[in-house]
Design goal:
This protein is α/β, with parallel strands linked by helices. 39% of the residues lie in helices and 20% in strands. Strands 1, 2, 3, 4, 5, 6, 7, 8 and 9 form a nine-stranded mixed beta sheet that branches. Helix 9 packs antiparallel against helix 10. It is globular, with a radius of gyration of 21 Å.
């Protein structure tokens, strides 16, 4: 497939008009300007559309494409972005963060460095609290070759994932009726399981500061409110990381206790992938533990 740009900077946004300009200005400062900025607005009602329209009328070296859709969650927005992207590489940048001035220039250099005879689906830059400070581990030699499943062992912290668009399009996010959240790790892990590699760089290209209205600050509650997506994530993780029987039992019990008041036994078993006959004992043990806690 022919792509018009080397990079699509993709931003899903929802009611972030108050902070989105930080990202916009960082894009204007990029040392490489041959990219497109694609924004999928996930149902904002805060004037984001008027703000972006004003930016579209400014003299920029890069095009700004804007699409509004009904609120459906970040992963639905990413699916839409992947379908519309005209860049060979797809770089999702959250609306409350911004990039270092040379971020896209580094992405082009990393792309040129990757061995073409190996199965890479993309590469990963570092995130920092400033352009020079990160809490994440640094790798000897400047980078680490691995895959997305290494995030559960040797690769820590928040990182900046860049995927080849053509590959990522093969891994669109499942969409569950009534649910609006699914961790992006679901497709990252599946790519790794299918044999795709990634290169993790030390260089900071993304500056982040979590906001009170962000998904990360929402914590585990957002998982509980989206039980099918949550179940898929943990079920996949257990399979791909080859959980022992004890690890599976621990996972199943934890999911059952959290979902006990909102799901049937059949739903719990199906969503987390546990034998149905184990659900009632898990419920019973949880009830007993709660009773003992109240008596203390």
């Amino acid at each position: 497939m022919e792509f018009q740009y080397p990079i699509t900077v993709f931003t899903p946004t929802y009611n972030r008009a108050y902070i989105l300009e930080n990202l916009y200005r960082s894009l204007q400062r990029q040392t490489f300007q041959g990219f497109e900025w694609l924004i999928v607005d996930d149902g904002s009602a805060d004037g984001t559309n008027e703000l972006v329209k004003k930016w579209q009328e400014e003299e920029n070296c890069f095009p700004i494409r804007y699409v509004w859709q009904e609120n459906g969650g970040k992963c639905r927005a990413i699916n839409q972005g992947l379908k519309l992207a005209e860049g060979r590489m797809f770089f999702t940048v959250d609306s409350d963060d911004y990039l270092t001035d040379d971020a896209l220039e580094k992405i082009l250099r990393w792309d040129a460095e990757l061995p073409k005879d190996q199965n890479y689906c993309g590469f990963v830059g570092n995130r920092g609290t400033t352009p020079n400070d990160t809490p994440n581990r640094l790798f000897d030699g400047g980078y680490l070759d691995g895959d997305a499943l290494d995030r559960y062992s040797v690769v820590d912290g928040e990182r900046a994932f860049v995927f080849y668009t053509e590959i990522h399009r093969k891994y669109l996010y499942p969409e569950f009726p009534g649910e609006k959240f699914l961790t992006e790790a679901v497709t990252w892990d599946l790519m790794a399981h299918d044999g795709y590699k990634m290169r993790f760089y030390n260089d900071i290209i993304w500056i982040w500061e979590y906001k009170d209205d962000g998904l990360t600050r929402a914590g585990y509650q957002v998982f509980l409110d989206n039980p099918q997506g949550t179940g898929l994530f943990f079920r996949q993780k257990a399979q791909f990381l080859h959980y022992s029987l004890w690890e599976k039992l621990t996972l199943w019990y934890g999911y059952t206790t959290e979902a006990a008041d909102r799901l049937t036994d059949a739903q719990i078993a199906a969503y987390i992938g546990m034998p149905r006959f184990l659900v009632p004992p898990a419920r019973w043990i949880h009830s007993l533990v709660q009773l003992l806690k109240r008596k203390r």
